[in-house]
Every structure is written in C-alpha cells, then in structure tokens.
Amino acid sequence: MELQQYLRIVRDYWRSILASLFICIVVAAGVTLMQTPMYSTSSSVFITVESGGTAGELSQGANYAERQVNSFINVTTSEIVLQPAIDQLGLDTTPTRLAKALEVSSPANTSVIKIAAKDPSPEQASLLANTVAANLEEAVTSLAPPGPDGTRLVTATVINSAPIPASPVSPRVTTNLALGVLLGLLLGFGQAVLRNMLDTRIQTTEDIEQVTDAPVLAVIGHREGEAGRVAETSGPAWANAEAYRRLRTNVGFVGLGGQHRSSMVVTSSLTGEGKTETVVNLARVLAQAGSTVLLIDADLRRPQVAARMGIDADLGLTDVLTGRGPMYEFVVQVAPNLTVLSAGTVPPNPSELLGSDAMTHLLEAVEKHYDYVLFDSPPLLPVTDAVVLSAKVGGTIVIARSGEVRRPQLAAALDLLDAGEVTLFGLVLNDVPLSNRSHYYSSYYYSASQPTDEGAPDEVWKPRRKRQLSAR
Questions:
Q1: Model's pTM, two decimal places?
Q2: CA–CA gap between residue 69 and residue 71 (Å, rounded)
Q3: Which residues contact residue 240 at a Cβ distance below 8 angstroms, ignoring those fewer than 6 apart?
Q4: 56-94, pLDDT tens digit by residue?
Q5: Fewest CB atoms less than 10 Å from the CB: which of 97, 171, 345, 427?
Q6: Whether residue 216 is found in the same domain as residue 350
Q7: Number of domains in the chain
Q8: What is the rounded CA–CA span in Å between residue 161 and residue 134?
C-alpha cells in the first residue's frame, strides 16, 4: 500500500480507530487502578573473608569470598534466615512465600549482597529488608568455619539499612497508559486495515481502477433529499451540476476515433445505484448545451422515467415496438431540445422486444434525427435486457453507486458486457460522500448554495407531444 491509501484508511475508519484507542486506554487505566501499590526498598550486606598477607593468600581469599557471596545469596532466602524474620515481625506466612517478596542479588565482582523487599506498606517493606539483613549477618557468623586461632574466616556486616520508600514502584501509571495508547493505536489501525481489505465495496475511483481500465467519466457526490429523486430544474437548487456537466463533456468525446453513434445505454450492476437519476440529469445537461436529446425508458420491468419527469406512462416504447402506433404519438417534449419516450405497457417478454428487428429499425430512425439518444435500461446482473440492448447501440455507461456495489459484482457486470461484445464508454461513480471524493475532481464540485452561470432553463416547459418522427 502507498501512503495515500493508508491515509484514506485512517480517514474512512477514524471512528473505530479512536474507539479502539479509547478502549485500550480505559482498560490500561482500569488495570492500573485495580493493582495494589507496592513499595520496594533494599539493604546491603558486605561479606568479608580473612586472608593472609601474601599475594597468593590475598588472591585465594578473594576467590573464596566470591564463592561465599554466591552461597550466602541462597542462604538469604532459606529457612535459617527467613523463619527468624517471620517470628520477629509476627508475619502470617511461610519462608517459601516470604522468599517471593524478596529479591536477593550481588553486583558483579563485588562482595556485597543486596536484599530488596516489596510490600504494600512502605514501613513494612523497610522493616522486612532490615530484619532479613540482620538475620543474614547472624547466619553468616554461625555458618562460617573458624580459623586455626578460633576467629571466623567469613563475616557479614550490614553497610546500608533500607530506608522507608516515599513512592510505590508499581503500578507504573505512565508506563501503563503509554502501553495502552500504543496498543490502542496498533489494534485500531490493524482492524482498520483488515476491514479495508475485507470490504469489497466500490467507494472511490481507485476501487474502480482495481476492476477495470475503463475511464471514470464523472464522480457524482451524495445529495441530501429523497432517495432516487431527480435533481430540481432550477439552477441554484441543482446539486452536483458541475459533475453532470463534466459527464456531458466526457460523453461528447466517447466514440471519437471510431464509428461515432449517438445512442447509448445507461445501466448499472444492481438496482438502486442511481442509473435513472443519472440518465435523466445527463439528458438535461446535454439539452441545455443545445444538443437534441431523446431519452427512452427501456427499463420495461420497472419503468421510472415517466414518473420522475411527470409525464404520462400509459403508452410508450413497447407500443411502438409492437406496432400499436407511430413513435410521434408517444414522445413528449419536456424541455427545449429534450424529448422523452416512456416505457409504455409492461410486456411479458422485455428481452425479446429489446432485441427485436423493430428495435433495430427504431434505433436507425432516431439516431438520424437526434444528437443523442439515451436509454435507461434494467441493471445488468438481475436480467439480460441491458446486454441485449447494449449490443445494438453505440455504447454503454455503467453507474456504480459508492458503498453499494461490490468489486466482484461490478466485475461480473462488466464481464457480461464484454461477453456481449458491447462497447463500454466508461463508468460513473455515483453518490460519493464528500469525504471520499477524489482530489482529482475536487475543483469541479459546487454545492447547492453555489449557483453556476449555466443553470437549468428558466422556463420549465409543460409536457407536450412531438409529432416529427415515426418508427420505420
């Protein structure tokens, strides 16, 4: 992953990262508060070995002293030292348990034994360390062998008494909280990366690029309001106007360099991805630019264009294809340069109608009289209608709703188009939250409170029939 991808993960999952961090800090603080404060202090005992005055005797005495120190370290935690300490202090414990409260050591190359004691009471910790040191002094005297003249060859002397500690050595509040923060960040970022890897939803243009090399024609932001409702026709209230104009600009370039045809299908992988809203708004901006546009509702299973445009839906495309009348009797002009042909009667065989010769003849006729012919079709995965129709037109635009369709679903939909030898003009990423909009397109977005010079028509035409063209 690149740095930009990690930053996007942090941006997308910052809430769960902060939640993990907060939980770990709370747990660390709770564990710290539940721990009993422990105080530690230590006393020191010096081991002395009597030796002769020659160099050899001094060397032998030093080696002997070192061996004796190691031996008396073990003696310190034995019953001969600890049982008297238990009796003197009146402790309700055993030598074995008391030994666990002591830490006996000797600095390297020294004859000093350091006795450290831990206890919840600072006074008791000091008293225990000093008592054990005194008992060790007595134990050394009784255990050390006498010399030829009756003197003890090894003696022990307490050189440092254990002071009463002023502050506990555990729990370490700062250390525990720091570990909680570190663990929280690791867990939070780890779960964010894992969730990102497991989340196959299309959310950004980078996600689309992982599925296909086809261009992203536009990125349309999320708009508050009724789900699926087409944008208002007044300029200041038309959110994402610049995104649709960008789509219009890119649509004007698709197909150049080959056989340029004016017809195209707008579809999606699944239902509810905003294909109808997109094709209606695309038709509007194309008409605003002066192009003649025919919008045909080819979703013969769940037609929505007529209801969204506020026109009669009783008669339309199916009636033209079945020969019930010429097309000019069913088209409605809803705005300057914009004409709509609704779906009409819902047929029992939508795929057969869309793939019929009558559909081919209709396409030949309307492509000669309109600059753009736009089809709103059913989604690709549930039914085959969109593939059948796409094979007849100039190309197809696929709408991908951010956070709705998943990469395997989009890939399967594009595979259907590829199997049908359909020309894919590109994709439109729809309903993108403001935080997810790609920086490549950030300068093209305007909110509803930022009207642009090129708004929707000031005059909203009332629907009326257009009597110019008949199906051949």
A1: 0.65
A2: 5
A3: 220, 221, 223, 231, 445, 446
A4: 444 555 566 677 788 889 999 999 999 999 999 999 999
A5: 97
A6: yes
A7: 3
A8: 10
